[in-house]
Amino acid sequence: MKILKSHLEEKIGKKKNISKLAEQLTMLGLEVDSVESLKKDYCIDIDLTPNRGDCFSVLGVAREIAANDCIKLKKEKSLKVNLSGKPITNVTIKDYDACPRYCYSEISNLSSKDKNNNVKKLPEFINHRLEIAGINSINPIVDILNYVMLDIGQPMHAFDKNKIDGDIQVRFAKSNEKIILLDKQKINTSQDCLLITDKKKPIALAGVMGSYDSSVDLETNAIILESAFFSPKSIRGKGRRYGIQTDASQRYERGVDFELQRKALLFAISLIHEHIGGVSSDIKEISSSKSLPSRKLINLSISTLNNKLGTSLSITEVKKILTFLEISSSSGPGDPLVKLKPPSHRFDLEIEADIIEEVARLVGYDKLPLEKVKTSFQEFSKTAYQNTLDLKKFIASQNFQEVINYSFIDDRLQEKLGLTKGMIKVQNPINEKLNSMRTSLLPGLLNNLISNSKRGASFLKIFEEGKVFSKNKKISELNRFAGIIYDQEKKKGWRESGSYNFFSQKEFILKLLNFSNLQKIILKPSSSKLLHPKVSADIFKAGKKIGSFGEIHPIVLKKVNLKKSFFYFELDSLELFNEKKVELIEPSKYPQVQRDLAFTVPEHLIFKDIESAIIKNSGNNLINLKLFDLFKGGDLPKNHKSLAFRITWQSKKETLDDLYIESIVKEIEKNLKDNFKVELRG
Hints:
This protein is of the alpha+beta class and 682 residues long.
């Protein structure tokens, strides 16, 4: 939001040094992005957080500065407005929860042009302030309403009375009810859209934009001026659904002061009378006190406040600080609790912690007492966050770069990849390409890969940690680690040879599992439809599948128009955290015994089956089993391969003799021959 320094000073009632003002605003939580020097003035660009809707006006920002300076805002001039007669038009509210207050007035005998048929000009200061704020000039009536919104924060709307048929209703839309908006966009509204309608048609998408059919122009001579309070939840996301973002919707979504409507209407009428003319009716208000936001009392403990901030503030000092924020307070003599009532413009104050933060802001974060951190050598179990951070650091040490993608993804991409099972559609997407919750981390990483490869990247190792979402009977959120290895480098360094392959990836995965201290891990051919069936594996821990890795399936490449393959892995994060403590074992003083055994194995048998059979028949003294050679061709039978194992035994009680080892080798040989038709090579 851009505002002028002179406009702020007009509200505060005193001059401010621009450098100190910018620093003051930032320290108050209203971060100043830039300050632009103008003729005898400055344009201040403030970046507001979503919870500070009360600062979406010059009045709101000035209120913060005045509170920090412990002064009151400059007293406003009393408005002298001539109002006569009741409005002819009646307004009916069908849902008070959506629109708890609606104020309006009718103004007739208007003319936006002077006697010479020239458009009447507003004062230069109004035009200049609107221009600085980035609000385009439309016509004198609309410009005045925009100025009121910029000045005090209340969005308003004017309907051309001659274009409205009968009385007005505030109601929710019927299914597929159509409206042509001011920007000439024709939309089909859904039943959760709040509308302003006349007898026949919608005349505004409430809190967002008026209709083209009821718009005010230079020929308008009578208007109905609206100043309403719409509940944030009834407005939130509606404009974004139709690709619209207006100054009004920004303010209504964050919450507008629900006591401001009549004041804003009087302000607008006075400016219209002064600069355009016209005759105004009395202001009529339709409201429901039950539906208006309630300002619940907040109990503040002074001792809690002082403990959290490290201060020694008294009740009197705290009350004085909060008074400047228009927070009313009450407490009995010696009562350690202060009962506080937030003002109508502060929707972000709900609990004690919010009030403590307000006190800290006004005292000044830089003025809070400093205390040395007390260290402790007590050891605690690692949290899931700490475990996740450790895993990230390990993966990064393997030359991976971390990426962070949105949890939202294009549903069309998920459909292409066959990831629509349990997919959750977003009702109010930020844009059409972020309209569903991801069910896997692959789509986001795939977008990263496509983007980088288009820019000439031939080697890429990226990973991401985050949540995936699905809905069956209920919504579930699961943490995942996933990564992509894309190796298409044509020229290798002198220290490297060959391209990244499945065994390179397997080595990395085993390192990762070893780092996580996982035990009894089994790898099996993968059943994932995303991975190549012959170059992939699933990871099992205690019989439960915890992840997959391998080369991406050629069909996936074709669907996303990628010509070159890559490797992908995805694992369940929480399953990588092993809380089992490592036990130190006294080494044996007796010698180890090793045997190298090579077996002729049918091609269809997998390594894990042979390994399990050997372990099962190797006795209690087995300490290591390692595959050190894979051979195909030569004099081997057709459709067979040779697997060579190095088996190591060691006893803690005695030296193992040759007879014992030979008996075990014969048992291994017999079992493999009987069950798998595996022969020991000579």
